[in-house]
Design a protein that fits this description.
The protein has 209 residues and is mainly beta. It has helices at residues 29-32, 64-69, 171-176, 194-208; strands spanning 8-18, 21-27, 40-43, 46-54, 57-63, 80-84, 104-113, 118-123, 137-140, 143-150, 164-169, 187-192. The protein has 4 helices and 12 strands. The two termini are 32 Å apart.
Length: 209
């Protein structure tokens, strides 16, 4: 389990595209220092299993399902990625519960400055819109963020056209994560609140009984 608090801004050192999968090498000396084969590391919100380490970098295999659901397959060597190690048992949960299981991708459609922060508007697939709530939590490229605004058609019970949500980024987030250099038109990985998904599943089960 992760918390969405980025530990290090790493970069892609290599990406080997295979038949239906890929092998990714990431430079991130902080997280790589304690990694070993079998360790889990969240790479821009995607939980990957370390297969080998070499100095300040680690390598992981990325399966086809992950490539289809996330932005990892479109990355190129030299591009930045957000890195986070799993939270240890008894550790502080400073963000929210993040599994590293990306639900889909959105696109940054607006970026506007405010007094001391930046507001991003992100499009959201229709099938995920019901899990987004104002003042709720969402992981964007593995970053735990609070939803500051939601479009009417992203509210449960509205039409199925998807919509958008907004997040406000403080200077610390802009300086320490990939969102500091993100631009309008960039795709981002989205993971909605897992608790909302479990509640929905439980309620659906009760209706069938």
């Amino acid at each position: 389990m992760f918390t969405g608090i980025v530990e290090e801004l790493g970069k892609v050192a290599g990406l080997d595209r295979l038949a239906g999968s890929a092998r990714m090498t990431i430079y991130g000396p902080l997280v790589a220092a304690s990694a070993a084969p079998g360790s889990s590391i969240a790479v821009s919100g995607v939980c990957l299993t370390v297969t080998e380490t070499d100095g300040g970098q680690f390598t992981a295999d990325v399966m086809g399902e992950t490539l289809a659901r996330s932005t990892l397959g479109a990355l190129s060597p030299g591009e930045p990625v957000n890195l986070e190690r799993p939270v240890p048992a008894g550790g502080r949960l400073d963000g929210h519960i993040v599994q590293g299981h990306v639900d889909g991708t959105g696109v940054i459609t607006q970026s506007r400055p405010a007094d001391r922060w930046q507001v991003l508007r992100i499009s959201i697939p229709a099938e995920l819109s019901r899990y987004i709530a104002e003042k709720g939590s969402v992981a964007v490229d593995g970053i735990s963020l609070t939803v500051s605004g939601v479009s009417e058609n992203a509210v449960p019970g509205a039409d199925d056209a998807g919509g958008w949500f907004e997040v406000s980024l403080i200077p610390e987030t802009l300086a320490r994560t990939t969102l500091g250099s993100a631009a309008v038109g960039d795709p981002v990985n989205l993971e909605v609140d897992v608790i909302a998904k479990y509640v929905e599943r439980l309620l659906a089960g009760g209706e069938r009984r």
